[in-house]
Amino acid sequence: MAKTSIACIAYDGKKILIAHRNPTGQMGNRWEFPGGKVEEGESDEVAIVREFQEEFGVTVTVGEKIAETFFMHNDKQIALHAYEIKVPHDGMTEKYVLTEHTEYRWAEPSEIPTLNFVDSDLLIYPDVMKWIASK
Predict the structure, then answer these.
(1) How far apart are CA 58 and CA 52, in angstroms?
(2) Please, what is the Cα angle at 24 between 73 and 69, to 5 degrees?
(3) Is 23 exposed, middle or buried (CB count within 10 Å of its CB: 0-12, 13-18, 19+)?
(4) What pTM value is reported for the model?
(5) What is the CATH number of the domain that holds 17?
């Protein structure tokens, strides 16, 4: 069975939360939609809540599934599921506690293709934009 990764789309009506990865690994030093791997026996929703606790130190609420695609990573097929999430606060006055990222910010959705974004997240970008347009 294909491994599953999750991408979390926090959208405040204008901007979308993106995070800059630590400079390690193949996708190091690139921007991404926050998320991670779904562990054995976890649902996507449980993985999303766990990843945000681990990587940002906050408890999020999971909304609807926005997009789904597949990509290849080290010759393995990975399923990528994107979900809407609600963060408890915007991380600006009260900072998120980062463990996997050097920084985060709220970006205009249209600027995402101009950033050094991870390839797998760019695959779901058109679906994310469609979802934003429907809001």
Answers:
(1) 6
(2) 30
(3) exposed
(4) 0.95
(5) 3.90.79.10
Range of the domain at 107: 3-134
3-state secondary structure the chain: CCEEEEEEEEECCCCEEEEEECCCCCCCCCEECCEEECCCCCCHHHHHHHHHHHHHCCCCEEEEEEEEEEEEECCEEEEEEEEEEECCCCCCCCCCCCCCEEEEEEECHHHHHHCCECHHHHHHHHHHHHHHHHC
Note the pLDDT of residue 26.
81
Structure tokens at 110: 């249209």
Amino acid 5 reads S
Report the domain count for the chain: 1
Q: What is the pLDDT of residue 38?
A: 97
pLDDT averaged per 10 residues, the chain (length 135)? 91 97 90 96 98 97 97 92 98 96 97 96 98 95
